# Entry
Amino acid sequence: VELAGDEQPVLEIEDLAAKSKIALTNINPVNTEQKGENILYALSIDCTGTMSDFVSFIYGIDNTKKLMRVTAFNITPKDRDSYEVKATIKVEKSVIFQFADDFFTNE
# Structure
């Protein structure tokens, strides 16, 4: 199944959140920018979870082989007497243009 380009980063974030036990409450595309042949997607993510799960989620985003990185985040306690936090995270994903295997040899 081929997805539209802007749907792929959302699926990757959902997968990382599930692995980290983070509940996603909202994902909004912020910006899509064309830089030459490459594309930069920016997302704003609202989520909740424990602080250790949140750290695991951030680490997962920054260390994925999918060229994603966290550019900003804001964390607040979910409730006064809770170990849970709610956070807003800004994530960027780069999509690098790739030539077809026979691009330079096909005439």
